[in-house]
Write a structure and sequence with these properties.
- With 420 residues, the chain is an alpha/beta fold.
- The chain has two domains: 156 residues, Immunoglobulin-like; 171 residues, Rossmann fold (3-Layer(aba) Sandwich), CATH 3.40.50.
- The protein has ten helices and 19 strands.
- The chain has a six-stranded mixed beta sheet with strand order 16-15-14-17-18-19, with helices on both faces. The chain has a four-stranded antiparallel beta sheet with strand order 5-4-8-9. A three-stranded antiparallel beta sheet has the order 1-3-6, with no helix packed on it.
- Strand 14, helix 4 and strand 15 form a beta-alpha-beta unit.
- Helix 1 packs antiparallel against helix 2, helix 4 packs antiparallel against helix 5 and helix 6 runs parallel beside helix 7.
- The radius of gyration is 32 Å and the shape is elongated.
- The termini are far apart.
């Protein structure tokens, strides 16, 4: 109820007191006028919401943080009475969205306009319900009427391009210096060599054999076909509480994970996600476009409210891993207990790396110096990200290392020529 309405009610109470207390004709007339004002004002506001048809056209069911949700609202007055002092607002729980539009309508008049809602934060929200507010000319009464049904809308996390992602990131191969030969036959041929006793006939490269006039066999490596995992530490104790407006360790962790996943998918790598947040998310690696959507939706919903410690979560994840996997942990934890679990995975042949967020930049009393020392001792590739730093710069090469050539999915021309 508005202050003006409260003032009118208080005035009616005072006038009624003096009317029945004194019996003066002036107060009776004043009371009747106030009563008429209330009836006319309420009726005006009520009738202004009758006979309205409203439509909202929108096709998107999800967007990405930093973009806009666009739509088109159309409203028609099917009543003979004109409408005035109307306010139309889309009723949504998207953060930071409050604007509305005031308008007036005559009979059968159609008003249409385009709306843009900024997508500020990731998450699952509701959009599509439109609220129309009608009021009398004096603004004493304000009545609301809602149209359409709310629809779910997913805001996916923001990503940053990583064109210079380090070639050593999680052991990803990009040239002959980083490929790993394997005995199994894979889809990636690294080189050819002369036949040796015991080589399988399936490995013979017949076109090259004919060219060299001697038996030549193919050598295989993992290429970029190995499954990649991104482990997002969303334990509540690993993050700094009390930060708002999306500038905190939780949102930065999600942005890093989303950017890494997007880059690996662009390289046609099967990527999986594991997170120990408000619920456990374990999505096995895949390279399909639908799988990328599932990963981003999981990142949109996950919250740093988990109770499972990172080391325990890594042990739970272990049955899903093999020695052909790469694994990257994104965390801002100041603890070092989880590093032993990561070292155990490394001893099993899994290529591991860590992206550490500098929690001191977000007001934490304890920094990440202790886990960084333990990671260096265990010779685990570590990348440090500071507040406001471009991710492409932070992930270009690990701490204590020099830069190398940017990551690319294109094999060397020498290898292509050798296997033709």
């Amino acid at each position: 109820m508005s202050r003006r309405a409260i003032g009118i009610i208080a005035l009616v109470a005072v006038v009624a007191f003096y009317t029945f207390g004194t019996g003066f004709e002036f107060f009776f007339r004043f009371l009747y006028a106030l009563g008429l004002l209330i009836v006319v004002g309420f009726g005006w506001a009520w009738l202004s919401l009758r006979g309205i048809e409203l439509r909202l056209d929108r096709t998107a069911t999800r967007g990405q943080a930093g973009d806009f949700l666009e739509g088109r609202i159309s409203i028609v007055n099917r009543n003979r009475l004109p409408k005035s002092w109307l306010e139309v607002t889309e009723y949504t729980n998207l953060p930071g969205y409050t604007p509305g539009r005031g308008l007036a309508l005559v009979k059968n008049q159609n008003r249409t306009w385009r709306t843009e809602i900024p997508l500020l934060r990731r998450g699952l929200y509701h959009v599509g319900e439109v609220q129309v507010t009608g009021q009398d000319p004096l603004g004493v009464f304000k009545l609301n009427r809602r149209f359409l049904e709310p629809q779910p809308f997913m805001v996916l996390p923001a990503t940053e391009p990583l064109p210079d992602l380090d070639v050593r990131y999680a052991g990803l191969p990009s040239d002959s210096r980083t490929t790993r030969h394997v005995d199994q036959i894979t889809t990636d041929v690294s080189s050819v060599r002369e036949y040796a006793h015991g080589d399988s006939l399936r490995r013979i490269h017949w076109p090259y054999t004919a060219r060299m006039n001697t038996l030549m066999v193919k050598e295989f490596d993992l290429g970029i076909s190995a499954d990649a995992w991104v482990v997002l530490d969303m334990n509540s104790g690993s993050h700094i509480p009390g930060e708002e407006h999306g500038d905190n360790t939780e949102e930065l962790s999600v942005t890093i994970a989303a950017s890494l996943i997007q880059r690996l998918v662009d390289l046609d790598m099967p990527v999986g996600l594991a997170a120990n947040g408000n619920q456990h998310y374990i999505l096995r690696p895949d390279s399909s476009p639908e799988h990328l959507g599932r990963l981003m939706e999981a990142l949109a919903e996950v919250r740093a409210q988990g109770n499972t410690l990172l080391e325990r979560f890594l042990y739970e994840l272990q049955p899903n891993l093999s020695r052909f996997n790469t694994l990257t942990v994104v965390t801002s934890s100041a603890r070092s207990d989880w590093i032993s679990a990561l070292s155990n995975l490394r001893r099993q042949g899994i290529v591991v790396s860590v992206v550490m967020i500098n929690r001191e930049d977000f007001g934490a009393a304890t920094g990440i110096g202790v886990p960084l020392d333990f990671l260096a001792t265990n010779e685990i590739s570590t990348y440090a990200v500071r507040r406001g730093q471009a991710l492409n710069d932070a992930l270009r090469f690990p701490l204590g290392a020099t830069a190398v050539e940017p990551l690319t999915a294109t094999p060397e021309p020498q290898v292509e020529e050798a296997v033709r």
